[in-house]
Amino acid sequence: MVTIFLVDDHEVVRRGIAGVLETQPDFTIVGEAGTVRDASARIAATLPDLAILDVRLPDGSGIDLCRHVRQEHPDVRCLILTAFDDDDAVMAAVLADAAGYLLKSVRTVDLVNSVRTVVTGGKLLHPAARMQATRVLRTASAEDPRFGSLSLRERQILSLIADALTNRQIGERLGLAEKTVKNYVSTMLSKLGLDHRTQAAVFEIERTGGPL
Asked: Can you give the residue ranges of the HTH luxR-type domain (predicted)?
């Protein structure tokens, strides 16, 4: 029997996914949650074979939850199921060790097949995305020491600041609360020894050789 835990802040969505998956005689839903906090505690209690996670949750990101689950419970595989098709989010999912990234527009039969692929050890992430993530990790030590001190999430946010995105826009792009982004920006500026996000944007543009 394949045990599955669902994380989405919309109960109707959770019930819909559960209804699809429970048509399979070897699938069983062992729990549901609508927030990162509740999901973290209940996944630890149930230890399902698979956790299906939305990206945007009221108190945080499903991708950050994925990273936590994979670190604390490596036998629990994670599948990101979201309405947002975004390269940055896919990259973050790779770095968080998600087994797959699917859109909610996926067909019923493809969702079932994807779950079977993931629980048997398969991956649903494009090889190019995994290669890009590997390059990011391998080149970190060769970067500016200040940049090297940033976490992967902080580097993502720095790049988006250089693209002139606001905290709200960054939150929408990465599936984070605006307050969470603000906290990341504050920590990032401190590590870089800078006072303002404009300085951070200039730092990133100069570092990457982009136009000022």
From this structure: 143-208
Burial of 51 (0-12, 13-18, 19+ CB in 10 A): buried
Q: What is the pTM of this model?
A: 0.66
H/E segment holding residue 3: strand 2-7
Residues 6+ apart with CB under 8 A from 38: none
Neighbours of 15 (CB within 10 A): 14
Q: What is the pLDDT of residue 212?
A: 46
Residue type, 49: D
Q: What are phi and psi of 189, to 5 degrees?
A: -60, -40
Provide the pLDDT for residue 9: 94
Q: For residue 202, give the amino acid letter.
A: V
Distance CA 7, CA 57 (A): 9
In whole angstroms, how far apart are CA 42 and each of 9, 13, 18, 34, 97? Answer: 15, 19, 17, 11, 20
Section 94-101 average pLDDT: 82
103, pLDDT greater than 90: no
